[in-house]
Amino acid sequence: MPAVFRFALNDLPPEAESLRAEVRNFLKAEFSGAAPVKRAKSWGGFDREFSRRVGARGWIGMTWPKAYGGHERSFLERYVVMEEMLAAGAPVSAHWVADRQSGPLLLRFGTEEQRQRILPGIVRGELAFAIGMSEPDSGSDLASIRTRATKTDGGYLVNGTKVWTSNAHLSDYAISLFRTQVVPDKKHEGLTQFLVDLRDTPGITIRPIIDLAGKHHFNEVNFTDAFVPDQARVGSDGDGWKQVTTELGFERSGPERYLSSIALIRELVREVSSKPDDRGTEAIGRMVASLATLRAMSTSVAGMLQAGETVNLEAAAVKDVGTTFEQSIPELAHALLDVEPTLDTGSDLQQVLGYITQTAPSFSLRGGTREILRGIIARGLGLR
Amino acid sequence: MTTDLRSLLSDTVTRLFTDLATKELIEAAEKGTWPDKLWRALEEGGLTLPLVPEESGGAGGTWLDAHVVVRASGRHTAPVPLAETIVAGWLLGRAGLAVPFGPMTLAPVHADERLTLARSGGAVTVSGRATRVPWGRNAEHVVTIGELEGRLTVALIARGAAAIEEDRNLALEPRDTLIFRTARAVAAAPADVAADAIYLYGAMARAAQMAGALESCLTQAVRYATVRKQFGKPIGNFQAIQQSLAVLAGHVAASGIAAESAFRAAERNDARFEIAVAKVRVGEAAGVGAGIAHQTHGAIGFTYEHSLHFATRRLWSWRAEFGSENAWARQLGRAVAARGADALWSDLTAR
Fold first, then answer.
1. Among A323, B45, B91, B235, which is most exposed with the fewest C-beta within 10 angstroms?
2. How many helices (DSSP H) and strands (DSSP E) are in chain A?
3. A136-141 — which CB contacts under 8 Å span 24+ positions?
4. Interface with A, mutate which of B344, B346, B347, B348 (most A CBs under 10 A)
5. pLDDT tens digits, residue range A78-125?
6. Which residues of chain B form CATH 1.20.140.10?
7. Looking at this predicted complex, what is its ipTM?
8. Residues of chain B with CATH 2.40.110.10
9. Where is A218: in which H helix or E strand?
10. Quick one: which H or E segment has residue B142?
11. Rounded Cα distance, B169 and B173, in Å
12. Does the CB of B67 have a partner CB in chain A at under 8 Å?
């Protein structure tokens, strides 16, 4: 076959499994008795106090060097913590982005000063990050961004607008991609990443964008002559595209790309268990077959990360297959049961279905659309 | 076997199939010619009995070694009962029985069929009817599992002891009815295996064969998309084709790891969950994957002249053999339902 993917089977080592028990006990103490619909919102939950407690347990920045407050544990141990958090529906948003991509990006490309200043705070669960990539006219075509960072004395003056910036209104920093040079016909050149202080930068205005369910997590972030100092530049001027691609690799590889509907999966199993007929058991059997297979794919990627391999292609495959699966779960609920999705009344199943139904369209958009991911896979197949 | 040795095994078996499992050979096999040369090469290469201990004439390998061989046989759509012989050899080994050379098959393959074992004087006899036995007419021996004097027993029977009604599957592979009328077994012994071990490990083997055949679909479709030109350029330049081949690639990746996970679980002799997962997931991939491969190939892929159908007709048959996706999904779903919603995650992560 075309040697596209290398999904080697990966066993989680004993130390990862003993850590799992620790994480479960912690989560049990935190959330026992929490309503299923609350747990369904795992990713949407932004709770700085919770993130601090997670940090205190040593579960943020797990793989980072001790010199920056990290714990020098394996990617596989980190994987176990991540999947347990998601399965339990923990409100992880206040540390997830920093732990998953912003911190690793700084470790890879940041200056020593940036690492010393920022990473220990992330590790303690005290610094929350947003992602400054998309713009009103640049979504999938990320390299077409126009927000300009113009060189000035001691730094850059930034003008432009970022959108879909989740939790910008709650976060401390946003790693942001700006255009520092306009190179005609070479849109991938002249891009640079910056560590932008969202709390303390004059010229930044953050406005809410309300999602279809009436909730505020998205924002529009406007920069008007916002001064960003030289020390905030991440990597060399013009290296932004290479770096942002690496960052997206971090963003796409985790278990959040197939576990978004786990709360609904659980409620469906609960429903079928109460009256296990052929139709119901067939449906949950198929569902669990996909779930178990995705977990094997995802742990395989974790093993490759541990081995220091590049996972961009495999991560794209996990995310594409994973989000297709996540989005199939509300459909399965409708195929199987006579149930109306609800907001805050009705059964647990109804409320979880209501929440997942209204969130599901985002699964195959965030972190790279389905079409972009399939384009990446097609390139791996040699078709592009 | 270490990972390095296993990749050596993979190279060896791939070379053997590339050289011998040619289009001409598969076509001849589909017309009823037993591919003796291929089979002998497999036997001489020690590839037919990977799980039989070395002292019994096998390769003394593991299920993960067997996976390499079975997957490759699916990738090359090799028209021989290699998977069946491998499982049969393993069962005989579990029962401490000597393993004969030559192709073997397994019976019965349906969950609701049974062959009856009885003792008659010093001998064990086999009676009953087993339908759609793979390669029944070509096998030299048949391995079955039945209850004898209250114990699960593996029995080895010469195929000549059975009457045969010939039939075939969509891929023109023999799927024959074997009728045993108090046929004397060559050997029989109790074994510590599941009562439905033939069905179980047969399903696992088909999952790996399908994962291999899906790889063949992807390779062929990608190759075709890069050489076939329409509107002045290779059709693989069109996003519509790229996107659907990416979907196929996702199914290939999922199938490969699902099948391999099952073989690894077989290593610890506790693979029912993983086998059900693999048969269901790979079976679903077979449906979608064969569809995309054909759509990419257009009309040429619909001809007998083209080789795509070697893979797709097998996928269409194999997904229903040793239990359909629905049957395995029900078994899996019943087990999940019995454990309940709150055990789902902890059970999944304990695998």
1. B45
2. 13, 8
3. A136/A161, A136/A163, A139/A369, A140/A368, A140/A369, A140/A371, A140/A372
4. B344
5. 999 999 999 999 999 999 999 999 999 999 999 999 999 999 999 999
6. 199-349
7. 0.97
8. 103-193
9. strand A216-229
10. strand B141-148
11. 6
12. no
Contact list in B for residue A31 (CB cut-off 8 A) is none
CB within 8 A of A141, min separation 6: which ones? none
The architecture of the domain spanning B103-193 is: Beta Barrel (2.40)
What size, in residues, is chain B?
351
**Which of B250, B333, B342 lies nearest to residue A282, judging by beta carbons?**
B333
Structure tokens at A263: 């709360």
d(CA B205, CA B214): 14
Q: How far apart are the first and last CA of chain B?
A: 22
Is B332 at the interface with chain A, CB within 8 A? yes
Task: Let me know: does A131 contact A206? Beta carbons within 8 Å.
Answer: no
Residue whose entry in the numeric block shows the structure tokens 């205005």? A205
Question: A297 and B348: CB-CB below 8 Å?
Answer: no
User: Using CA atoms in the order B213, B215, B218, B219, what is the torsion angle rounded to 10 degrees?
Assistant: -110
Please determine, for residue B282, whether its predicted confidence score (pLDDT) is greater than 90.
yes
Instruction: Give start-end residues of each CATH 1.10.540.10 domain in chain B.
Output: 1-80
How far is A134 from A220, CA to CA, in rounded Å? 10
All domains in chain A, ordered by first residue: 14-127 (1.10.540.10), 131-240 (2.40.110.10), 253-380 (1.20.140.10)
Residue B289 in 3-state DSSP? helix
pLDDT tens-place string over residues B108-135: 999 999 999 999 988 999 999 999 999 9
C-alpha distances in angstroms, B246 versus A363, A380, B237?
18, 9, 13
C-beta pairs of A209-217 under 8 Å, 24+ apart in sequence: A209/A163, A209/A164, A212/A358, A213/A355, A213/A358, A213/A359, A215/A44, A216/A169, A217/A44, A217/A46, A217/A166, A217/A167
Burial degree of A335 (CB within 10 A; 0-12, 13-18, 19+): exposed
Give B1-80's CATH code, choosing from 2.60.120.1130, 1.10.287.1120, 3.20.20.190, 1.10.540.10.
1.10.540.10
Separation in Å, CA A16 to CA A162, A297, B350: 38, 17, 12
Out of B249, B258, B337, the one facing A281 most closely (by C-beta) is B337
| pTM, 2 dp | 0.96
Where does A240-277 have alpha helices with state H? 240-252, 262-274
The nearest CA of chain A is from the CA of B292 a distance in Å of 14
* CB of A268 closer than 8 Å to CB of A279: no
Exposure of A58 by Cβ count < 10 A (0-12 exposed, 13-18 middle, 19+ buried)? Answer: middle
Answer left, alpha or beta for residue B157, where phi above 0 means left and psi between -120 and 50 means alpha.
beta
Asked if CATH classification 2.60.40.1930 holds for the domain at B199-349, the reply, yes or no, is no
First to last CA, chain A: 17
For residue B148, the surrounding DSSP H or E stretch is: strand B141-148
Average pLDDT over residues B208-212: 98
Cβ-contact A20, A80 below 8 angstroms: yes
Q: Residue A159 and residue A178: Cα distance in Å, rounded?
A: 9
pLDDT above 70: percentage of residues in chain B? 100
φ and ψ at residue B137, rounded to 5 degrees: -70, -25
Measured between beta carbons, which residues in chain B are less than 8 angstroms from residue A384?
Answer: 237, 242
Residue A266 has pLDDT above 60, yes or no: yes
Mean pLDDT of A193-207: 98
